[in-house]
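quick one, two chains, predict together pls
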Amino acid sequence: MISANLSAIFYLISGVLFILALRGLSSPETSRQGNLFGVAGMIIAITVTFLSIGNFSIGFVVVLIFLLVGGLIGAFIAYKIPMTAMPELVAGFHSLVGLAAVFVAIAAFLNPEAFNLGTPGKIKLGSLIEMSIGAAVGAITFSGSIIAFLKLQGIMSGSPITFKGQHLLNGLILISIIILIYLLCSTQSSNLFWILLAVSFLIGFLLIIPIGGADMPVVISMLNSYSGWAAAGIGFTLENTALIITGALVGSSGAILSYIMCKGMNRSFFNVILGGFGATEQSSSSQNKEQRPVKSGNADDAAFLMKNASSVIIVPGYGMAVAQAQHALREMVDTLKKNDIKVSYAIHPVAGRMPGHMNVLLAEANVPYDEVFELEEINNDFANADVAFVIGANDVTNPVAKTDPESPIYGMPVLDVEKCKSVLFVKRSLSPGYAGIDNDLFYQENTLMLFADAKKMTEDITKNL
Amino acid sequence: MEIDPFIFRLSIFILSIFVGYYVVWSVTPSLHTPLMSVTNAISSVIIVGAIIAGLAGNSNTIFNISSIFGFLAIGLAAINIFGGFLVTQRMLAMYKKKKKNK
């Protein structure tokens, strides 16, 4: 048994360690150490909790069993998960944080004595407000993440699901959540608590279904942020500093990532959340472009072009993840490097399905991180490069974003791929990308389309080099 | 008049948001995926609340409804803690610098 003051100090230490864990991520060298700070913070928080309760009876054994079983499942998932499935994994993990927050809120509501919050039916007002906000946000995180997970996993269609009056319905539900919290706090009725949870689950579901696959980076970051706010809400209820600090850190982290992702698409946050991107734009641009001539080539042509280049820039996108082509790509690059060709990688902020998705895949394929560049760092280099090799990316290379104010993606920052001497575009077909618009790059004089599966094409090029 | 302890917690909360804001902006974009998995792991410190709920009952009533929710939350949070930190470690181990630098 340790005193409340002492345990509060330890919780503060673990909060500081969590800050250091995030701080470590400012560079890959310090990041591994940062992760260990995070682990240390977690061990301190859990140990102190056990010591401050000081109940080592049979209940303690049950707690340890749940801890171990959960831990084993988590460790198993962490080792088995392929890197291409990271977005699904993160969405799945967010849903667990959300559900855990809901369960803790339920436990606190049913047994407030255990948390020094009063007695059932007479919970302290402040605690009840914090608890119900934590529970509601947790429930939204849970059901929202489940939908995001299903969409990323392909179990549910990635296309936006919209219906008439959707925004009105969502607005009404959000207002009803606020009213429910108000009523709950004035009546302390447990029925209202359950209704609040049910409605929050429902709104989480409704908020995410209209958002399409390529907007997932924003959604995942947003849910990341929600899971933080839910934790902070519960932290206020439990009067626990570690939880409050962590909740605030995670909340702002997710919010910043959402902002970066929105900026990468030149869209406002509300525009993404309200969903249905590009759905109305297709009709105007589909007729006249069908007949434009396209140069297509095979692996042999591509190998010839690259062999005679002195610098090559690779532009990976979600298609590379789908085709699992990152290893084949690295092998191709190795062969190029043997021929003294300078190779670098250009990553668009919203390439892939989550922030940093492409970087992880390239790292997995043993691509050194100092060959991988962000949009601002590398965009000027395209003009001097001989070959741009676009693999699985589409909309993020579309020059229309710079030239056509009518285009739905106008103003979005894009990679200046068209400035390269020649462009190799690996793609299955000419179909438009997610934004539903044609890519002018396909029809350029210096573009050679390579119609094939990304992985197979890359392997074939390597053979021909 | 004494200051409500809530105000102190609120101060910590607000200041932590600012700390988080500046720390996260300094995270290099190539590590944004590990950032998400590690924030996910640390937000599972919510397990603290779950443990309190789970250990609330005495030996006769280990399994009342409240502590059962506590136990379930412990299991969920534990998946996240172990899964989150380990997968982050696994990802970070892959980030390597160029070996042969002339």
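Chain A touches chain B through 117 residues (CB under 8 Å).
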